Amino acid sequence: MKISLVLTAFFLTVMLPVLAACRTSNDLASGSDVQISAEVTPDPPVVGEGYVIITVEDAAGQPVEGATVQVRGDMDHAGMEPVEATAEPGEGSGEYIAVIDWNMGGDWSLSIGVALPDGGYVDESFDFSVDSD
Amino acid sequence: MAQQTSLERPRTLIDVLDVPLIGRLLRWRWGRLTLQIPFLLIAALLIYDGFTGPDRAAQNLATLVPWVHYRGVIVVVILLAGNLFCMGCPFTIPRTLAKRLSLTPRRFPRLLRNKWLAFAALFALFFLYEWLNLWSSPALTAWVIVAYFAASFALEAIFGESAFCKYVCPLGTFNFVYSTASPLQITAKNTDVCRSCVGKECVNGSYSPQTVIRLDAIPTLDGGTIDREVVHSPQGTPGCGTQLFVPQIRSNLDCVFCLDCVRACPHDNVALAVRQPGREWFQPDAWPKRWDLSLLVIGLGFMGIVNAFGMIPPVYDLMQSIARALGLVDLGLANATIDAITLLILFGVGGALMPAGLAWLAARITRALTRTVPKYNQRETVAAFAPAFVPVGFGIWIAHYGFHFLTGALAIIPVFQNFLLDHRIRILGEPDWSLAGIDNFTVIGAVQVMALLGGFLWSLIIAQRTALRLYRRRATNGLLPWALIFFGMMAAAIWIFAFNEMEMRGTILFD
């Protein structure tokens, strides 16, 4: 029993901080001047297919063309399958449109990752509440 | 040979402890610890990921494992085997240290030696789960786990019994109530041996700072006695933490399946026996006839309904109606405050007042219809029918927790892969986020309806047997009020699960 207590104390006090130090950073943004905005259609979104209209602008407010935009939606309850989509260029400058299948009503968090033409990467999260009908 | 025959168990008793390997592992001095250490490591992992990992619930082990896997697995394990989670509970490991640090262990206050505190703890956990959206916050979930360790440690350091397990722990309380359905129970092999036992080690333990040896005269089948050597030593095991005396155990209530009684018994007279699932519900003397226990069991079933109701859109309309009716919005209160007040009302009415009121009313009607007002009082009548609330309540929890588990069981794979990748461990490759679970809601719905109907029918059978035992020819009259409550509970649950879209929503705006 004493050995198990020592091992437990060792694990909790030494190993966990070491593990935490090894953890990679979640912040991959290298184009922090880039602004990402997102709107949904319909608004508010309802269960079923919907659109996410993403606008990407640089620090000067100029639209960013030629970016690769990935969208991932997670429900705020664990265990639900996320939805993922690649946004296509829209009609407006710096505009990208993704088709999202909102497969359940509730609170969603959309993670929008933008690979910039200059090799930079920026991501941002947006929260939406999806109605069941 | 004489010693073996003297302790021979009844032929009808099937003892899991006799199963090769499993029995040996369970009896082993460190058997419980073998189960607890993996759970402790998992708990440490959840705390770690909760505080340092992704803040999205869907990508964090701290939210996925407790709210999807633990809850889904626990209801199945309880139903098929029993209270195995309490057996492997990691929260009790630091308790051992607390016990050694404890200088003057006290008894838990007499006023609190009942299930009222456990009922309040369950209520608080369900309320906080909804109000703080625990399911969506890895960090808050990690704090809940830390709080469990801290509470268990503190109570064990102060009190000389397993006060946390018996009187406080909401998870344990849930397990206690529903493990009454399980097919396993601790029992004495031969009660004559217990009667002759001097030390009652199953409850008192066999630990002693210095080795002490005594001889017990144990009865044999031929009417004689044999002397059995009993050793107390520093290597001895503690007795039952929740202070159950094995020959008096008629129920799984309060039994954490630690098997300390098995290890402490010097006469090998304790069995982990196979029994008819839910047998104790049919035995009138199995449960104490106390208000706290009866209302806990009844209230837990209703809390299952309220908890599931929190997943469907009508709850938001109701909460907004309550807020408007009470003028909470006009008071200029913050959304979180209004949310807390309306949830408290919802949970208070649905999870406490309604079950208590309905049980009281049903007992009054039953006594009047069966003309047993002088014979049985309100408390006795409610207590007689309380066990019948276990199956219908359990069915509701299985339907709810089963939904989350069936839809998300496989999500553990990509989340764990992601966790490893976060630590630059690529052995399991890139996560496949499409892995989640069954996405056919018809199949899940069928499982839910089966659980609800099964629970309802089982409850009816228990209540009918109880009514027959108590009221004989007026049994139908006695059964009627309770059957109506069971039907109402089942109908409400079916309406929630089958006629509403499930939602996972935490934000409610009051306008």
Structure in words:
The complex is a heterodimer of chains A (133) and B (511). Chain A is built from 1 helix and 7 strands; from the N terminus they run αβββββββ. By secondary structure, chain A is α+β, with helices and mostly antiparallel strands. The longest helix of chain A has 21 residues, at 2-22. Chain B is mainly alpha-helical. Chain A binds chain B through residues 1, 4-5, 8, 11-12, 16, 19-20, 22-24, 26, 47, 72, 74-82, 84, 103-107, 109, 111, 127, 129, 131-133, and chain B through 33, 37, 40-41, 44, 47-48, 52-54, 56-60, 63-64, 67-68, 93-94, 96-97, 133, 135-136, 313, 404-405, 407-409, 411, 415, 421-424, 433-437, 439, 500-507. Strand 6 (105-115) of chain A pairs parallel with strand 5 of chain B, so a sheet runs across the interface.
Outline the fold blueprint.
The complex is a heterodimer of chains A (133) and B (511).
Chain A: H1 2-22, E1 35-41, E2 48-57, E3 68-75, E4 83-89, E5 95-102, E6 105-115, E7 121-130
Antiparallel strand pairs in A: 1-2, 2-5, 3-4, 3-6, 4-5, 6-7
Chain B: H1 2-6, H2 22-27, H3 31-52, H4 61-80, H5 84-87, H6 93-101, H7 116-131, H8 138-158, H9 163-168, H10 170-178, E1 184-188, H11 191-196, H12 201-204, E2 212-219, E3 225-232, H13 260-264, E4 270-274, H14 291-309, H15 314-325, H16 335-370, H17 378-385, H18 389-408, H19 412-422, H20 441-471, H21 475-498, E5 503-504
Antiparallel strand pairs in B: 1-4, 2-3
